[in-house]
User: Which sequence fits this backbone?
């Protein structure tokens, strides 16, 4: 998996996105094992277009059904408007693109609260804040929540507030 | 010092000793290795469609 490559190409194509999910948690809290890169994109027509370009450059592939799997460069422009979340394959690792995120209403508000993170390879990325990560976890059905992450996020938030108090 | 405390201190010492760039490289390599061991591999069309259906179902309408 080459997370730096995925993040770099998205940035090079001017995609407005926030890093969410396991990689965000891994970079800022604990080294959890995660098998995909989750990106929440700003859901505008222009940004979806830029994202389609980035995914093409990453040689990502997707299909409405398994038997229709193909490089995204062969999909008709505007394909990202088709549904709220896409799970793609790529030579650099699995990529999930979210147009909306359960528990969070507004991408721009989340972006305002986001944290700028550097990967170990020196790639800078805007990542969902701890409070918003916790909101995402608690919005999930109980059986889908990751308890370890929820507890770690609550501790981090409490410690930060105690330090600022 | 019991074994669990010793283990915790050893882990903390190792974390502090890691070069961040090298640590990041190893994390990504570890994920790649784990992907190759998993019975149900994540970076496949089948697994992508399965998780996509699950995530779409969990989103509010």
Assistant:
């Amino acid at each position: 998996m080459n997370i730096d490559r995925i993040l770099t190409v998205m940035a090079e194509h001017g995609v407005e996105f926030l890093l969410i999910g396991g990689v965000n948690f891994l970079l800022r809290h604990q080294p959890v094992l995660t098998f995909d890169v989750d990106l929440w994109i700003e859901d505008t027509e222009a940004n979806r277009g830029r994202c389609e370009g980035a995914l093409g450059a990453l040689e990502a592939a997707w299909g409405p059904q398994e038997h229709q799997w193909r490089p995204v460069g062969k999909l008709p422009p505007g394909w990202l408007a088709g549904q709220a979340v896409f799970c793609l394959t790529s030579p650099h690792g699995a990529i999930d693109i979210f147009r909306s995120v359960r528990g969070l209403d507004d991408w721009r508000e989340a972006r305002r609260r986001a944290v700028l993170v550097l990967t170990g390879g020196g790639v800078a990325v805007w990542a969902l804040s701890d409070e918003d990560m916790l909101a995402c976890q608690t919005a999930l059905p109980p059986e889908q929540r990751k308890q370890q992450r929820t507890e770690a996020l609550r501790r981090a938030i409490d410690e930060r507030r105690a330090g600022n108090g | 010092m019991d074994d669990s405390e010793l283990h915790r201190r050893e882990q903390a010492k190792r974390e502090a000793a890691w070069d961040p760039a090298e640590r990041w490289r190893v994390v990504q390599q570890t994920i790649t290795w784990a992907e190759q061991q998993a019975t149900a591999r994540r970076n496949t069309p089948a697994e992508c469609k399965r998780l996509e259906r699950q995530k779409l179902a969990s989103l509010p309408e």
